[in-house]
Amino acid sequence: MSTDDKFSCMEIWGGNKPIDKNFQTPGLEFSIFSQPCANAKAGGDVTYTSQCASGRITRIVLADVSGHGELVSKTASDLRDLMRKYINYIKQSEFVESMNHKFNLLQTNEYFATAVVLTYFQPTRILQLSNAGHPPPLYYSSATGLWSFIYQPRDNQEAMTDIPLGILPSTCYSSGQFKLSVGDVIVTYSDALIECPSHDGTLLGTDGLFNLTAKLDISQDSNSIIHALMDRINESTGSQLSNSDDTTITALKVNETKVS
């Protein structure tokens, strides 16, 4: 079962260990579930969330790092330092570029990460989203009652943009902005979900994941949404998530709470 945490200003929470938690920040109720492969104590998925000094800015990061062990744990520590450095920045582009710089310092093409970064500004209900080669997040619109994938807009069509972290030192990362409404839901996930094998050996894929997500009960809290999605995947494929890969899902749900 998950536990509920109310975030404090300037707090950073997360890492690459097992997580199953609910969080409350101004304007958001969100949950993070992460289980390393085969119930290991730490894995290659790194998740962090932070709240700024005023409580207005909530940032959530999910990174899927190639490799395991001490190298990933060191990366998790470096990422935490970057979260702290940029915790009061409303714009996230500089933070994402710094993440890429950290991976390029390792000077190896075998070590990289896909990542998705979300920054929510409560007073305007604006969500910024950057995607570095990660599977597209899912978005539920309370206005239409429909789900869709969020595909990253390109700021510069000619440049190499939005590729995984650590591939090229000079990479641009787009930062799409979305006006959210109360009841909207954003789900991010690691590739374990779309690479989950079904009975006949085929992978679930984004289409299969979308079909299962569309049947979720959105009236539930964010943690229940995550576990309901995992149950549907396990039942549909006959597989067990986290047996063969690190499994991470985050879900945020917009509410009417404001900064006190």
Please provide a written account of the structure.
The protein is 20% helix and 31% strand. The model has no long low-confidence stretch (mean pLDDT 89). It contains four helices and 13 strands. With 260 residues, it is α+β, with helices and mostly antiparallel strands.
Based on CA atoms alone, the radius of gyration comes out at 17 Å
Uncertain stretches of 5 or more adjacent residues: none
Estimated share of beta-strand residues: 25-35%
Order of helices and strands: EEEEEEHHEEEEEEHHE
Task: Please count the beta strands (DSSP E, at least 2 residues each).
Answer: 13
Structural class: alpha+beta
Counting DSSP H or I runs of 4 or more residues, the number of helices is 4
- Proportion of residues in helical segments: 10-25%
Strand order of the largest sheet: 1-3-4-13-12-9-10
Round the mean pLDDT to the nearest integer and report it: 89
How far apart, in Å, are the first and last alpha carbons? 29 Å
Describe the biggest sheet? 7 strands, mixed
Sum up the overall morphology in one term.
Answer: globular
